[in-house]
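Posted in: Structural Biology > Protein-Ligand Complexes

Title: Requesting predicted complex, glutamine in pocket

I'd be grateful if someone could produce the 3D structure tokens for the following input. Sequence and ligand are given below.
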Amino acid sequence: MTLDKENVKRVFGEAYDIGLAAASSGAVADYIPELAKADPKAFGMYMLDKNGESLSFGDVGVRFSAQSVSKVIVLAAALKFKGFDETFSHVMMEPSGDSFNSILKLDTRSNLPFNPMINAGAIQTVSLLTDEVSFADLMDFARKLCRDDGITVDERVFRSEFMTGDRNRAIGYLLKSKGVLQSDPKRTVDLYFRMCSLSVTAKSLAALGLILANGGVDPISGERLVSEDHARTIKSIMFTCGMYDYSGKYGVRVGVPSKSGVGGGLTCAAKGPMGIGFYGPALDKFGNSKAAVKAMEHISRELKLHVFD
Ligand code: GLN
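-- Reply #1 --
Done. Output follows.
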């Protein structure tokens, strides 16, 4: 797919203005106290394509916690270290239609969490790795997938979530009580918190989107990080489940495999291939970045990036 450079630049410029204007109607997450300190007006947007060409707007260098965007990295790691069959014998791949931290269907409908993009499913997926993969290896994998050696654990966010994350602990213990969690609930939920606290930028999330869009190969270094099959699986699950209980509408309106986090991040694996990363901590009621979603609607519509265009 070839895109006219000038047109791409114009569309991204318009999208930035649309995003900035939308941010004012969102609100930063405050259930993790440290996240409430973010500037609700902040907005950064970065595009990286397979030739290494980029476009950069606003707060692209600001570090913030990946939060649920890390669920993509956790899924990629589980597929890499445990394989497809093993991973999906412990977590399903169905959209839940419920909020990201819901416990409802897990208790009433199914013993296995619906998918790896919601908290229950991510905690379950982490439990496959807790005793098998060192944190240093997970961090190394995250840095490569994001082309960002500056990723570290934001200790303040980690502590803040550690102090307030009882709902996620409840999910961990519920999974244990059902006999499905694959490791100790305390260590597993702590590792989940640590992954959520990885500090990324809009630029790192653009690289993550690009590598997935490019079938798992980093087009700039040439290194394969994710198998082609796994990249297809991850993108499919991002498409159907990546935006929590807004995934259906986002699929229709934007139609680009994407994953959001309550820190304000959004990674998008778009045609081109190109990766688009966002930082916009003012969220909508689903927990998605208000600015990023509005900007992506415009970009996808104007550049015909919907997977069914
Ligand atoms: N760490 C957050 C939580 O578990 C991640 C949720 C999110 O980004 N939606 O609540």
